[in-house]
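Customer escalation, tier 2.

The customer says the design service returned an amino acid string that "doesn't look like it belongs to this structure." They asked us to rerun it and document both sides in this ticket. The original structure tokens are below, unchanged.
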């Protein structure tokens, strides 16, 4: 689950059957898989609290691939870009989240809250905190720093069966350990499909090594030839909450530019 909404988009990438990948290879292929030059998604988020109450939100997610990644354009920025905007309900309308990834320095994350009328930078110590009250963290949504984790394959011959049924698909079970053991969620065990490098499940452990959260993909479809998680869920067993994400419309290679991911654009989209 290196990238959440990484977590949500992936391209088809077939491996030669004889090729054997290391854990670092698998983790890197998850992060760098081809998802086109850019994408635009219209999404719905449902937050379920411990009392069974449901709050619904609408949002758009824009992404742009950085230089050196599969499918990136000639004018791509140094790293991936991501911009989320909420449009419903009114109490969160205009809220935005912007991520600038950098290959040679720390990623930058910015949150715009209309009630404050300003952009707030998300510090590295906050990346595992809740993203706008959901069960996802800023790190889940905005991506992890690859070098902050070490990786191990714990099962070479795992498989995943879609919720809708059908044959099982071969997978690796990949463990990602945060080098900083004091992190709130220092260990993740992910199920990575071998034919596409999509993360379809992830068990997320807290500092007490309790499995606190579970990420699952409910519906995986090919959109414009790219494997895309159309329905995904994050549950929190300790808090007894869950967050559902559903893609209502997905488009790849729509012609976005680096200027669409500026701080000015983050604030402008709220007006």
């Amino acid at each position: 689950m290196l990238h959440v909404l990484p977590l949500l988009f992936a391209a088809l990438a077939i491996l030669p059957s004889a090729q054997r990948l290391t854990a670092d290879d698998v983790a890197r292929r998850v992060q760098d898989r081809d998802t086109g030059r850019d994408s635009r998604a219209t999404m719905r988020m449902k937050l379920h609290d411990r009392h069974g109450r449901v709050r619904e939100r609408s949002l758009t997610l824009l992404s742009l691939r950085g230089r050196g990644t599969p499918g990136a354009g000639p004018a791509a920025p140094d790293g991936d870009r991501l911009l989320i905007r909420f449009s419903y309900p009114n109490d969160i309308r205009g809220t935005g989240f912007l991520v600038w990834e950098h290959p040679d320095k720390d990623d930058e994350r910015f949150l715009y809250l209309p009630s404050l009328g300003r952009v707030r930078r998300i510090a590295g110590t906050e990346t595992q905190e809740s993203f706008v009250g959901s069960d996802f963290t800023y790190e889940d949504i905005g991506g992890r720093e690859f070098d902050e984790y070490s990786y191990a394959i714990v099962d070479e011959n795992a498989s995943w069966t879609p919720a809708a049924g059908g044959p099982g698909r071969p997978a690796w079970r990949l463990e990602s350990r945060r080098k900083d053991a004091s992190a709130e969620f220092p260990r993740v065990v992910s199920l990575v499909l071998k034919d596409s490098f999509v993360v379809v499940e992830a068990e997320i452990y807290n500092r007490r090594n309790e499995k606190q959260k579970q990420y699952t993909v409910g519906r995986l479809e090919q959109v414009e030839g790219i494997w895309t998680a159309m329905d995904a869920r994050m549950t929190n067993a300790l808090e007894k909450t869950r967050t559902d994400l559903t893609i209502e419309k997905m488009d790849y290679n729509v012609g976005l530019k680096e200027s669409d991911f500026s701080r000015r654009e983050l604030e402008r989209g709220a007006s």
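Tier 2 assessment: The sequence is consistent with the input. Residues 5-268 form a domain with the outer membrane lipoprotein receptor (LolB), chain A fold (CATH 2.50.20.10). Residues 4-18 have pLDDT under 50 and may be disordered. Sent an explanation to the customer and offered a walkthrough call.
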